[in-house]
Design a protein that fits this description.
Chain lengths: ~240, ~240, ~240, ~240, ~240, ~240
């Protein structure tokens, strides 16, 4: 029934390749099927003004899509003169989600910026960005721990997956063909221990019931659990 | 236990005054306690390019805060040269939510723009904007029906309320004092018949469990039910 | 002869309601007939760089119109990415006019920002902003005097009215119907003691003679005198 | 008493050199003492959307200052990313003033753009721009009349001069040394026949009385009369 | 003598992988040592206004760097609100250079946009962008030829290499370590037949003689010849 | 054969008038035939952040064109909201070229900004800007030397000329008629002693051979030599 032939509760194949750029303190290329996102972590001693002097760390994120990461070419945001509303919304979500897995006291007064750049898009780029972004973050923090700059590990795994109602059925990990037709679309960000960080469910044409909402949550919990395994395997 | 002395499941007093500006096709001033939002509906025959020729209607929304609607003065976005990320995120949510209560075929190829301007802010401005915005939309559509431009009513009630976990307890309709301290913050947009349109729950410092999520949903359902009564009463 | 049926030298009814928002140090809603402007005063210890260290106070103003304050919806300036030329011109005038009624030494090194936001427009919004803005300023300064932060009252009343030549006749306080047809349009800002602060007369289609200019000045002096009474009554 | 040694009612020496650029349909370099402004007129068949199809002509103006036209270098507005409030205010005034001397029916549906660029500034640049701008306009219209594109002359002379109260005395044509110290500053735009187009008087530190206002008007009338002679002589 | 241990006339190892994104009509990832650029070609029927109706084709280019493609993180241009001067200069060069290898009549009235996004930078990104951009262009044109949309091949190979004077010696293909220390830096864009398209030599600290200029040209000719081999091999 | 009737190796007549504005520390109006550029030098003690504390001087440049300096009116960049790509490219070239003639140690920690504003354009404005800009720079530095602020002269002459291939022939100093038809267009910036600072040759429709490149270089060397004579004569 799904365009890709997957079962309702099947995720796309996940691959996370680390160390893909030589400059960044942490980096990976995450592939969720045909969705490919390059995630890098930049470590700086400089923190934003509102954190200065607090002794707390800060994690923030930026998101972008290459102009031809999509089926038809999108205008480059640098040319348009500003980031679009969708971009701003997504990068705020990535930053907020990753911070929920960070012990900011243990991180200490430093900033880590996660850049998520979509090389190829096929649905679910924001979730892939969070999942891959956490890997880049993990690798950068590992460096801090190796040098002794940090003694207590400040990180708990954070991963994200989309679920939605496609052709009347709850499905896990929507690709573009499904996403563009789905009646309900949700993003679920969870910690490795199953605690919820952010839940966003949104009607796109069809509304949904509490019962449907619960089924999507069940799918999401199973999906994130697999993603956390992939993250930990990639960081070994 | 709540700063305002309200019970956990108490909403603030709601007041919706209609017809507050002479130019708009529909308007109201909604007050959720000390949060005051002016909502206007503008009816136009012109539709956006992506709708043109489809025969379908379009509902969109814009959101703003007066500079001194808040405790300390905010910079005017027109001076800053752009709408901030939070503003863009909110106005996209308002538009999306209201459209979920509109039969776009019945509305016909015309556009209604809902402007939500916060006169005074005390938490929950996006939810008040949706609830008040629907009233402005209702009044504008009423005009279309009176003149016979529309024969089938295209509208179902849509209302929104915030819930969150404050001091460890699930509470309904957070005011600013609670919102700024809440560990979890959620916005729930529902139709009058109880169907869900959008659910956003977000950890702010504390994560949350599925059990807590369900308690917030219960509060939200009760809250929206009261708000829909207030909307219908105001539009009589 | 006037669309509203007023006599040539009749002003619209004036109402000034104070204390309309809980956050601002001073606030009022001024109504000149159907023109409604919300004015707030924000008090800050921080002054602009060019005043710093001088011991002098500073008063500045910003002006905006809600998108549907007018007959047809105007584009939101925050969306357009900048304040239009008309907006900039008006807010510079408001700030300049109010400063002419302030003893900046007596005010001391602090800044008061007056925000004038047009809720509903029917001509004469800049004059209503100045008249209402002064009331907000007065109320904020009263607070400073009550707490003893200021000992000498730094304020003299300032008010503004428009006059113009409509259908060949000099008339006081143009509403939108007149303003859009007037051959000559003028704004007159005076102090309570009758001294002139700013005079702007502008041909819109017809030029004017010195004799006509004098007649407009006579009307303006009478109008401002009534406005100052209304200001003082509102601040009691 | 005046820094330049001029009498109270003396204007600076005026020089208007025409034909200073080979591309423009009309051009002049106007010098009011040390204030030098290059004015060009561009003739186009294309008119703005709000004029299209009306059969009426349009005259508009833009204003700029070279970065080092002033005592200390100003930031280039193209670098700053927008025209400042003062620039916008001035160019709107120039356009409005020149239009008051144009019979738009006789001009026919075409647009003339007047560019006024300040090469060297020493006070009174907006008045010099209007006076010089009219000369450029005159020369461009002359071309239209020579080719027979226009049969009725659409132009009446328009000129502008500043007056102010300096050291307590009304003076004509303020230079920078006076302008920066003046208590009251006014710009007076008149037609060649003495009719008023725009009067702007503004308190800068000191307010003014109606009697003073009248004295400034007297000076302005005399000044403009001389400027119109210079304009006509230059266009011969 | 060179930081990389290369001989003066050695280029870095070149690799060109094609077909790296599924959406673009042509794509490659070019690696010049540690400089990695993703190049995509987008084919559109729509042409810019200045080409419309001419029957001629158009090739244009855009360039960007991922924020952490460099040693320290660069600000994202979309956040800065505009493309920097360097970016604009480079993308104009890429477009101009590629057009010099295109028979625009044979291409027909269609547009091809080449996007060059730097994934990892180690000097010479503009030259790599041109060389890789041509490959993407070649692949997109191949599609047009396969479908019969184009009958005559409009393309001639175009490639680019940098040369400079490092530690007093002319060297080929500067990497970042050399580029940042070079006294003279040049970019040489040639056609496959040896004709020159663009030569840019620029003193950075040291000026240069005609004799040195000729030596750089010799190196460039040899380098481009190797690059053209690599391009042709990749497109087979 | 050339539209102007000049010989292939003839430059246009050059005139450099100094001291043309009273405010700038150095200024000239350079005329290369009908190309007229006003160049001013502004001397400041303030240096950019990246130079601060280094003891080194800084020379930078900005470039602009008056809207009607060209055959048809160009949009004012301040109105467009940003400097175009061509402007940015040119002003970076001017600054880079002039710095190649400056001993930054001898200049000492101060900044000189060269503004080049094109009054009338007829081809070759960037070269005229460099040649005239150097004269303004020279005059400003002379002031520093007269006051003893600088003891060692930090300047070597820098001048620029364009050459190109027009109607198949290498020609010196292209005017607009030639520039718009030239197959190859080059800009050559040299020091007074013949050392090369920057060479840019660009195919515009036709490519070029090394032999042609050498002929253009020969013309450029001869042209710059004459320009340096004119610069030195003007600065006496």
């Amino acid at each position: 029934m799904r365009p890709s032939g997957r079962d309702l509760s099947d995720m796309r194949s996940v691959s996370i390749e680390t160390g893909v750029t030589k400059h960044a303190e942490g980096s990976c290329l995450i592939k969720m099927g045909d969705t490919h996102v390059l995630c890098t972590a930049t470590l700086e001693d400089r923190v934003p003004p509102f954190v200065k002097g607090s002794g707390l760390g800060w994690v923030t994120a930026e998101y972008g899509m290459l102009p031809r990461s999509t089926g038809s070419r999108m205008r480059r945001e640098a040319t348009a003169g500003k980031q679009g509303g969708r971009t701003v919304e997504i990068q705020r979500l990535i930053g907020r989600s990753l911070r929920a897995g960070v012990d900011r006291v243990a991180l200490g007064e430093r900033q880590i910026t996660i850049d998520c750049d979509v090389i190829q898009a096929d649905g679910g780029t924001r979730c892939a960005s969070i999942t891959g972004g956490w890997v880049a973050l993990r690798l950068a923090v590992n460096k801090l721990m190796k040098t002794g700059a940090i003694s207590t590990d400040p990180l708990t795994p954070v991963a994200a997956v989309s679920c939605g109602i496609y052709a009347g059925q709850p499905v896990l990990d929507l690709d573009y063909a499904e996403d563009s037709e789905a009646g309900v679309d949700g993003n679920f960000i969870l910690r490795g221990d199953g605690q919820l960080i952010e839940v966003q469910m949104s009607a796109e044409g069809a509304t949904f019931s509490r019962d449907q909402m619960n089924k999507l949550m069940d799918l999401a919990e199973a999906g994130v659990s697999q993603l956390v395994q992939a993250q930990l395997a990639a960081c070994k």
